[in-house]
Amino acid sequence: MPFWTLVRNLLVGLGTSAEIFFFTLLFALPLGLMIAFGRMSKIGFVSQIFRIYISIMRGTPLMLQLFFFYFGPYYIFGWPIGGYRFAAVIIAFSLNYAAYFAEIYRAGIQSIPVGQHEAAFVLGFTRTETFVKIILPQVVKRILPPVTNEVITLVKDTSLAFAISVMEMFTIAKMEAAARTTMVPFIVAGVFYYVFNFVVAWAMERIEKSLSYYR
Description:
- The protein is an all-alpha fold.
- 81% of the residues lie in helices and 0% in strands.
- It has helices at 3-39, 44-59, 62-77, 85-110, 114-122, 127-157, 169-180, 184-211.
């Protein structure tokens, strides 16, 4: 098969990888903030529940979580396997990355001096106004570098979807390599992953610079 056929097939897989990347961020970023609030709750058992959740999601392999959400419905509810591969990937990735984002958010929020909350209260700000107008903009600036690291890791982790036969780029590269008996598909896929990550890193760097308005 000609080289450009390989490139076209891998680009199709890259589209699926990009979808996994996009939907994971779409769900994991806001979910992580909710989990962070739960983790910081002053209600003991609520905080403990979210602490355990974060511990489980960070302490077990993402691939194992993929298997759980893919095979779990069959063993628990008797659902036929196969019709929800992509959904299982998005659920597993979103819940996993939300746990990491939650700890990043928590660290950012707790790094803001308590005096800023007190000053906002004196000025008549509500708790919601204080968080949205004063705390959140500072938190976003502080957490952007670690969030960027997680986002870059996510680009590479999309390849784990091959474990449940989702036709993302790495899965297609494996199939092409087996059919052609050559390493070229893996090399081309590696180049695509690098370019994908380069674009993501560039975009995150631009966002970080745009928020550095005091420099």
